[in-house]
Each structure stands twice: as structure tokens, then as C-alpha cells.
Queue: 3 jobs
Job 1
Amino acid sequence: MPVVVPTTLAGVFEALAADPHAHLLAGGTDFMVEVNFGHRRPPGVVALRAVSELRSWRIEGDQIVLGSGLTYADLASGAIASRLPALAAAARTVGSPQIRNAGTLGGNVATASPAGDTLPVLVALDASIDLASAAGLRTMGWAEFFMGAKKTARRPDEVVTAVRIPVIDSREDYLKVGTRNAMVISVAGVCVCVDFTNRRVQCGLGSVGPVALRAPEAEGWVAEHIDWNARAVPDPRTYETFGSMVGAAARPIDDHRSTAQYRRHAVGVLAQRALMRLV
Amino acid sequence: MAYENGARENVTYRLRVNGRDHDVAEGWLGESLLYVVRERLGLPGAKNACDQGECGSCSVLMDASLVCACLVLAASAVGAEITTIEGLSTGAGATRGPSATQGSGALTDVQTAFLEEGAVQCGFCTPGLIMAVHDLLDRLPSPTDLEVREAISGNLCRCTGYGRILAAVEAVAVGRRTVGEPDKPAPSTRPS
């Protein structure tokens, strides 16, 4: 039973019970690179590609529930994009059309790369993650789920089945720095969400820490400097201060893609620019 | 490919490629769809360059969706309808292996436009680009320049500088409009 391609979630649980060490395969855009280069030799694979119930979305109470099998292309256009513009923007920056047709939201979440493009958005929008197994379903907030670089609270018998995002009245955007527009892994990425429902600003930072981070001090400060009735920023100096406070919240490192210094600078500029676009 | 470290598990599965069923009898579990179509099914049109989804030269359609064949686990593609460059024009196919589709070898309008506009130099990226352009124009018959550039952003060409490729895409879009709807406006009046 080396490669199983179930068509239902029940079939996935059955396959995982039979082969607990099997690798769960979503879009394959990370996994196959490791296999092609001989860095990984999976003992078995359970592919989620044909589980159509994971590739849908719905409104459930005050939440948008996005199936983990939705591709970046699914997120980047249509009804999901108009409801979640920052997530759509992030999805559109991923790879190329070929990658966006294959890679999935659930794959991005479960892989938990520090540079995962949807993760700063999910963190800024206070998303929670649905984890399903034969033992049942549990829902976990992002802060509990993302434990470190490529480390999550998912048990091996669990499947990331959905991401839940609260429905709010907001303006939101995602900005990213890389060496070109296409086929680039983020050097720094920022999602800013101005939440008019709760009169707060939430900011998610990517590629500047082991996991996507929030910038609580910057968020709290800038919320006091927005005219919430006018939906505007009265003092234009607010943007720059917000940017430098966001930069201070980053925990970047030097690596082959960039330096910590540049990342901190870039993440601040992106946050400033995003806020200027939004209010 | 570094498959030597350890035992090889032999698996048997069936892939549907260019409208035909192919049994893959001696594959290794971890083989990519690109490896299988090229080395086991005798369809060498999709090219192998980066093996990591960067270059687009292995682009194929899987259930009508453009993907990099190098990033598809072949054994997981069971049940999917796969189209390679060999299967683009009806009954056509550059054939080499025993199981390859035999056909007339007639060129599609995109392939013809690439030749006429000089969009082919060394030719290595060409099959992937042809797949990407067919995918684009089937979805968006009158793409803007930005839409064309985004659609081919996952296909690297190191010879042409892309100008002639963009010209070829434009030529196909105009040609299809002229054939299908003669009263449509000329390309210069399209929004860009």
C-alpha cells in the first residue's frame, strides 16, 4: 500500500490507520522537491488530492470556513477573494500559475514554513485551524497551532481539514518583498487588517521569525491614532511610526535569502505602506 | 535521480495520459509525473530542467489545470486526465516510445504562431510555454498584456527575451477572434 488516493475523509483516516507513518500529501509543491532531490524517501503516501470535500468553503455563523484543499488559485479569485482580499493577495504572490494550481491552503498551514505566504494573513485575521482524525474534530487557534519553524500541533493521525476566519467589517492587504514578482519565496511579508467591527488593527509578519508573528505594541498604538468614525488617520506621521514599531516586533535572521537588518527594515516599510493603502 | 539509497518498492498503477490509459508497472513510489511520462511512457515533450517547479518546462494539464509535472507524484495522479504537449492537437503526437500516442503531428494555432513569430530559439522551454499559452487563451480569449505576462511568469526562457513569445500570444488571440467573431474590434482597442 505505498500510495493511497482516497476520495473521502473517512478513506483518509482508514489509510492512516493502516499505515500510520504515511506522509499526507497535499499539493506536492514542497514535498516533491524534497523527493526529487533525494532528500526524502516516504515510507508511504496518503494523497489528499481526490478528497473533494476538502476543496470547498462555506459561511458558518460568524466565520468563513475554508477547506484545506482549496488551491492558491481558488483563493486568488472569485467569491473567496472578494471576501478575503489579503488572503487573495497573498495567494497571488505564491509561485506561478502552475504552483498556484497545485499548492493548497492546508499544505501551507501544515508545512508551517517561516516564509509561508498565507500564514501572516491567517495570523493577522485570527484564524483557527480544524484538525480531524478518526478520534474526532478539534479546532485550535493559530497561536497554539504554529509551534515553530515547520512545527505544528498537528498529530500524525490528524488532517488539517479547514481554516476558520472570523467575518468582520475590515480593510486588509498583504504586501511582500522578494527578488522578482513571480516564483519567489518571501524575504519579508506583512498583512495589515484594519478591523472596523472591533476598532482594532491586526498585523501579521512573515519571513521575519520562526513562525508568522503579530506586532501587538504597534497594533495597540495605531488603534489609538485612527479616527474610527471617519475611517482615516488624522496625523500622517502615524504611518511611519507604525512602520518602525512593526519593524521592532520582527525577529529576523540572516540567511541565504536576505539579512536580518534588511528584513526588519522591509517589514516596517511594508506595514507603513499597507496602512496607507487601507486608511 | 537519487533513488539508489534503499530498497525500491515496485508499484503498479494506471495513468490516463492524452486520452489513453497507460499501465505503469515498474515505477518507484516517489517518481514524479514528469519522470514517468518521459522515461516510462515515452513522451519526451515535457522537459526536465529544474525538478523543483521553478522553470515551467515540464508544464502539463492535469484535470484541465496547468501544473508542473515534476511536482506531481505520479502514483497519486491515478484517475486524473493528463494532457502533455503530445496530446494538444487532436490525434497529434511527437512519438518515440512504444506506448506513445500516434497521430498526425498537426500543429496547433499556438505552435504555428510560435514558429511564425520567431518565439522558438533553442526550443527547450517551448513545450511548457505552449501548454501555458493554450491554458491562458482557453480561459481568457482576449488577455491584457499583464494577464499574458502573469500567465507565463512560471515559464523561464533564456533565449528570446520573451518579446516574440508575447507577439505569438497576441497573434493567436487575434487569429482566434478573426475566425470566431469577425466583427470584434482590432487588438489595439483592447483594454491593456
Job 2
Amino acid sequence: MGAAISVGLTLAVIWFLEKMTGTSMVARPIVVSSVIGLLLGDVTTGVMIGASLELIFMGAIQIGGAVPPDPLFGAALGTAFAILTGEGIEVALALALPIAILAQSLKVVIFIIRSWFMDYAVKMAKEANIKGLITLNLGGLIMQCVIYFIVGFTAITFGSAAVQVFVDNIPVVIMSGLKVAGGLLPAVGFALLLRPMMNKGNFLYFLLGFILVAYMALPMLAITIIGVVLSFIIVFEKNDVQGVLAGNAADDEMEGLFDE
Amino acid sequence: MSNKVKSTKEDKKMFRELFFNSFVLEASYNYERQQSLGFAVGMWPAIKRFYKTKEERAEALERHLAIFNITPHLAPTVTGVATAMEEKASQDASFDRGAINSIKVGLMGPLSGIGDSIFWGTLRVITVGIGVSLAKDGNILGPLLFLLLYNIPHLLVRYYGLVFGYKFGTSLISSASESGLITKMSKAATIVGLTVIGAMTASMVRMKTALSGNFGGVEFELQTYLDQIFPLLLPLAYTLFMFWLLKKNQKPTMLLFTTIAIGIAGVLIGVL
């Protein structure tokens, strides 16, 4: 009971904070799992599960209207079940993904319900009713948080026993397979991040970052600075050099060639 | 639109109000109008300042209820631009108010391109890397440091983006767009983002083969040879394979389950 309330409240409060602070990343697994660990009395395990799940859900970010699997639910419930059953990271991992995918449809439903609110919003705007608009905006968020509490509370109350039976029956080979999969899953996340950014023309920059770690084991900050310097040279400096050259060779015939 | 370079006391008060109102952008995110309700609420301090009649305020609020969507951290920059245009509109009756929404729509795409690369692709990836390196040993500083490192630039961009958007208004942003500055910034952000994601892929994706053979009494471990030729070749190959599948329009969910299946199957047959 206490655990169910803790998990339900964590879901509701964290989502409320995330959307009241302009998407400040408090709903990411690394934070959510740590909070769940803290509330359920095993901070260390919570934080460690958070680290693994954060990498797995690397690509689960909402860009535009497309709703990805929900890392908040996956992390909160996956971590809670792992701690409550006394099992480790592999169990959290096995449960977090299917849960995140189920929660994805919950979010879709909420986005549809709130679309109906927009008629009221337009009516209120026509009357310059700002108090009404602020209330409606917050009301939409609070409705979502209440639903999150109910779903989280119910899942822990009725799900724990079933999850325990399920976990007790997972064969050893599946568990070690899940461990291997845990190392592989961030690849999906990174691929998702790369999809809108990478093409044939800029693949080499990705490769460069990879090589700097694979062969040279440089720290992240060093690689970031290299990336910034490189981008400056390529995007700004190089064009200026062309401009300077065009200026030096300032005869009329050449000008047309270098002008952009 | 405003050519004042120095902010008056009243300007600063408005910036503060707009800044604090900007956080609820996505409280009621929905399919029909996406972030518009939050955006309209966020514009109120400016609308209240520049329009005095109920009719004008209503018209402005309704204008900002038009569908809107952007990387949340860059929304205040657009709020700043829209504020400058609303100010102009309140002073000049002949000002084409329809232009306000066209400018907003025009900024959505390019600014989101930059914002997604910088915030989702670069800043988040770096700060997650730092946070996870501590958190994987169970250190509570991991999540705390992650939140701190992510949100300092987040808050700075929120506030100064707003001030920048207002001060330089549409003139500079549209001339930046014409001179190709926005395209250049977007390209630069992509280069940094790709380099960082490449580095993170190398440090975070784990894949080793357990394949080994015995040829004439000589023990042969494939992984040892791979490490000498191209360390981390397998994680690179697997990430690019996932990328390729996404390009072929495979669903992310399908990739997640395929990966789990590969992990289990790999252990079963002794390859991984």
C-alpha cells in the first residue's frame, strides 16, 4: 500500500514538475529511478537502474507530435518492481520496455482528450478571459497527473504479485541474454537521435567522434570542444577564407566564380 | 522591431514576467493545437502591457492560440519576437497583424532544427554521459549533476533568447535567415551533435563476441583480434545497422524487441 502510493505520487509529481519547469528533464529515467529507489529504501539500486534505463531510453524524446515509448512510466514501474521483488537491473530492464510502450498509448489518449479542451480555450480567448485560460492550461496538466497517480497506484497494488511469479520463472539464459541486450539497447537510442541529423554528407563527423573514443579514449568534454572548433572552421572560417581569396584576386573575371 | 538597445525598467519587468510565464508551454500539450494554449498564456504579460481594450486583448490571445510547436527551450525566443511585433501592432493600426503568425510559423522550423540538435542531440547527450558515469556505480550525485548541468544552459537560453528575440525582433532574425546565418548555425549544431553522439555511442554501446576456435592447438579468440584492428567495431556496426533499419522505416519499438531477441539468442548459441 505504502509502496503503491509512493510510486503513484512519484509519477504524478514528477510529471507535474517536468511540465511546470519547461521540460527540465526531471522525468528522465536517471532521475525517476533514483527517486523511486529513495522512496522504496534502496537508493543505490535505484540510481544504478536509472543509469541503465537512461541509456536505453536515450532516443525516447518527443519531437513534434510523435509520441515515443514513455520513459517516465517505464523507469518508475520497472525500478519499483525490481526493488520490490528484490531482483536487479535485468528485471527492471525486462519490465521497463513493455510498460513504456503501454504508457505511450495512455499519453496518446490524454493528448486526444485535451484536444477537446481547445474549443473552450478559443471561447475564453474571445472574451479575453486570461484566468480561465491559465486554469484550463493547468487543469489539463493536473488531469494528466491524476490519471498517472491512479495508473501507477493500481499497477503496483495489483501487479506486484504477478510480476513476482513472472520473475521467479525467468530462466538463467534469458537473464544473461537480457544483460547483453542491456549493453546493445543504447544503440537503438543513438540511432533514433541520428535519424533526423545524419546523412551521407556528414556521416564522417559521427565516425570522428566514435574514433576519438575507440582509439584514443578522449574524455567527452575534449571531444565536444573538438566538435565545436571543427564546426566553426567548416561553417564559418572556410567561407571567410573563400571570401578573402575572392577579394585578393579581385579582377572582374574571377569575381563571378567566387561569389556565392 | 523595437530599435531600443537599452532596456527600460518596464522592459525588464516584462522580460521577467514573460520568462516566468514561459515554463507552462506544454502543460496542456494536445494534438489539435500542440503548444498553443501554453504559448498564448505565456504572451499575456506583453498583451496586457500593449493593449488596453478587452477587444484587442481577446484578438491577440486568439491569434496566439494558433497551432504552435517548437523545441520548448527556444519558445521564449519566439515569444520575444512576437512581443516586439505586438508592440508595433499596438502603436500602428496599419500594421499587418497576420504577419505575426506567419513570422512565428516561419521561425518554428529553423529554430527547432537548431534547438533539437543543441538540446536533445548535444547538451542532453553530454550531460547524460556525465550523470551516467557516476550513477552506474550507484552515486546519487549522478542524477543531481545531470539536472544541474542540463538546466543552467537551459535557463540562460530561455531568458536571453527572450531578450534577444524582443530587442532584435524580426528584422535581425529575418535578415539572419536571408544571409543564411540560421542555416549555418544549424549546420554547425549538427556537426557538434554528430561528433558528440559518435563519441557517446563508442562509450555507451556494449557488444563483444564470445566466438573462439581452436586451430591446430592455437587458441583463437575473435574479440582479441578485433580489438587490435578496430576496437569497438561491433558496437559501431550494430548502431549503424539500427540506423539503417530506421531509414528503412522500421518502427523503433520493433528495433527494441529485435535487440532483446538478438541478446538472448546470442547468449543461447554462444556468439555474444
Job 3
Amino acid sequence: MRRIIWLLFCREWRLAWRRPGDLLNPLVFFALVVSLFPLAVGPEPSMLRAMAPGVIWVAALLATLLSLDGLFRSDYEDGSLEQWVLSPHPLELMVLVKVLHHWMVSGLAMVLLAPLFGMMLALPASVLPVLVLTLLLGTPILSLLGAVGAALTVGLKSGGVLLALLILPLYIPVLILGTGAMDAALQGMPVIGFMLWLGCLAVLAITLAPFAIAAGLRIGVSE
Amino acid sequence: MYNGARLIRVFDVPEYSGRTPVNMSHPPRRSGVKVKPLPVELDGLACERDERELFASLSLRLEPGEVLQVAGPNGSGKTSLLRIMAGLLPPSAGDMRYGGNSVYHGAGREDWRRQRLYIGHAPAIKGALTAEENLAWLCALSSPVGTEQIWQALEQVGLRGFEDVPCHNLSAGQKRRVALARLYLEQHPVWILDEPFTAIDKAGVTALENHIMAHAQQGGMVIMTTHHGLDHLPGVRCLDLGQAN
């Protein structure tokens, strides 16, 4: 069991490494959106500071959504997914590893870049740890929920818009909690409540989403 | 007639692109059937796609050592039948039993899961990965195999020297050969093959036919679709879905 997880992880890394374009797309999108905002609304620090939580979170959310459409598509088209479904190993575990890898190359990379963009948007240094922590708890939820949508739309030729319609409503609580925590931190109020809620959602997503993803893929493959 | 010596001779590739050869100190491993399969029974199986009946009340019993060719015109449900048998698609009616136990909702499920190998139309080969990496992963989905075994299997399908080539640089026939190398690596007693001869050249087809017959002689079971005539092979049963309707 450990061996298959490790092998799958190596396979995903190799695939990502050999197509670096796919790897960088969401990150470049994230960076572009965040860096265009100061150019568009002007360099006034107080205004940037007020907008920063929303801009960073919305950019992270859309970047995740952008990268999700192809999550299972290539494995579906070349028949790999059939072999996964037929394997005696649990599909839930394999999709969890795949989503974890997706999060590492999109979500985790955004978390690491976030302090830099926070400074660009004039956030005070004391708020940056909160920004990193909310994204660290929030982006896995975005990846896991998005993967459910990606699994359900895997058989569709152009599932992009449908995926956004399916998934965006589910993203809203995460968006509200993430930006809420940032606003509270900017006003010097405690953020622990927001963090606990995000943590709850993350645990819930890690526990339940793999089953939904696997069920979606089974349906997709049997068409 | 389907002995090992013949198999190796057929697969031997004359020219060689100058890569380090595999350690050939021991003879190439042939896929021995370790576990004898149990009889497979189809009981009144039916398939409906888009409210159109492809086939209905299909009943059949397959014994170990048998090769079944599923024939029929395009759209007669050959691939659907194979996908139903592999367990990818639920049948609209009927049941399938492996050793007397239902594969869909019974004790036969786990046995069947471990003992059948399905190679579909889409051969599950990733273009960005090399032949060796592809096979290592596909085999690991059931039971891991060593690098040396993979090299030997690739040599047997005539891809010596292509082990480290990314598969998007291979031709369609070569990609299919990479997928079929699994037949030399994995230990599943039951093979379900959807159009295995597609894009394979004449010598490759003969070699594959020999390998399939050798597998059956060792007690394995093969269920395959092909438009390629198999009349010259002894003991191949044919199920014609066009006539069945």
C-alpha cells in the first residue's frame, strides 16, 4: 500500500516535471492578477491594504479553478483511469494522492508566494503570518472540492464552464472565512475562530472528498 | 508448437541501436500462469446504450484454457461486452459468475479483480513517460515488477533499445507494443483484450497469437475482440454478436 502511494507520487512528479508549462500556469495567473491590481487602482497604500485580502483570495481561488479542469482529463483520455478503477488498490487513496500532488504544485506554491504579494499590496508584516496560515488551510479545501467537480465533468468535452458553475458555490464559505480572518487581523482582532472553521472544513474535505471524487470517476469511466 | 524457443525467435530484433544490453544471464521470463483461473459464466447478460439494446440474454460458459474471440460488425457491442466483463460497465440485466460467485454483487468480485487483466482501446500509455516508467506503474497497480523484467518484456515485444524513449516519440504500433508488453510481465490468468492487433505489423501479430495460444495452453483464459481472422488457430471459440441478435 505504501509502495503504490510512493510510486504514484513519483509518477505525478515526473509527469508534472516534463510539462513545466502546466505546472506554472496557475502560478503565473495568480502572480499576474495580484500584480495588475496596484497598476489599475493606483498605488495608494491604504486602499491597497483594504483590498489585499480579497484580491489575493480571489486570485488564489480562480488560479486553482483554472488548473483543475485538466486534473483527470488526460488520464481519462489515454485510458489510465480505467486501469486505476480496475486495480485492486483503493481508488479513494489514489485520488487523494493525486489531489495532494496537485495541491503541492498549485496551492502550496501560492502559499509560499503569498507573503511577497502581501508586501506588494502594502499589508503590514504582522498580518503576513495570518495570510499564509489561512491560505495553507484554505487551498487544500479548494483543491479537494474542485477535484470533485473535475471528476464529475471528466467525460465532458468542454467541462470548464460547468465545472466553475458546480464548484464556485462550494468555494464561497472558504472565501468568506479566508478574507474574514484577514480583515480581522488587519483590525487587530483575534483570528482564531476563523482559523478553527477553516481547519474544520479542511479536515472534512480531506475525509469525505476522496470518496466523492472516486465515485465521480467511476461514473465517468463507465460511460 | 507454441514452445518458448519459437516465441523468442519470432520476437528477436535483428538490428540494435547501441544501448547497454539487458543482463541476459538467465533466460527471459515467460508469463507462466501461476493461479489457474476458475470457469467464467455469463448468465443472461444484456447491454443497453442510449436506450438501444446492443445484446440481450447472452449466456456462455468459459473454461480455463479457452480463447474466446468476440466478433461482430461495428457498433454491435463488442467493446461494451468486454468492458462489462472487465467490471468497468454495469450490465443492464443478467449476471456474470467467476467460479460460481457473482462478480458484480458477490464473493467473486475480489477474485475477479485480482485475476483479470484488461487492456482496452486506449492503452493507458502516457506520452511523457518512457516505456519503462509506463510499464513499471501499470504493473505496480496489481503487483510491482523489477526493471530487469520490464527490459526483458520490452525485448520480447521487439522494443529493445526503446526503454528510455518517451512514448510520444514512438509510433502507434510501438505504443501498442508497450501496452502489450504487460502480457509478458503480469501474472493474471484471465486476459481481456480489446483489439490487441490494432497497428501491429504482421510479425508482431504472429508473435502475439503465439503468446496468446501459449497462455491458453498453460491453462490461462483469453477473451478478445478483433477483426483479424483467427480461423488458423486451433480451438479458438467465436462469439458473433452480429448473429446473436
